[in-house]
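Hi support team,

I submitted a single chain yesterday and got back a structure, but I'm not sure I'm reading the token output correctly. Could someone confirm the output below corresponds to the sequence I sent? I've pasted both exactly as they appear in my results page.

Thanks,
R.
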Amino acid sequence: MMKKTFGCLLSVAAALYAQNAQADLYQECLDKNYMSDKEMAKCSDDEATRIMGEIRKKINSIAATSYFNNWAPSRKQYNELLDNWDKFRSQYCDLLGYTYTQGMGTISILQTATCNVDMNNRLLQDIENVITVYKENAN
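Hi R., thanks for writing in. Yes, this is the structure output for that exact sequence:
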């Protein structure tokens, strides 16, 4: 029991370290390019893509767990979930970015990209919540 608990804590610590390292790289990119909205937007686009990769891994893990077969017997539903999320997030963030300067100027591009990061982080937290609830309730 002690070894299992220690192993779980060690894996959580490693995941947090890796996540913090990625956050540091993202912040470093933003800091390095703070004079250019377009370059900062590129940093945010790259970060949003990285986070989406994490989301896909977690969704694939959920889809491979037999516990969820009653919710979605095929991966098609999971792919549709992510496709619909991607469409919603993109349209919402485009609207938000447009709102800053009616689509004119580079601040709109930056705000859109930042919104994509924020929204992807929200979904990642929600997916992690699904996994946490599953682990707490699955027997």
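A quick pointer for reading it: The chain has four helices and no strands. Let us know if anything else looks off.

Best,
Support desk
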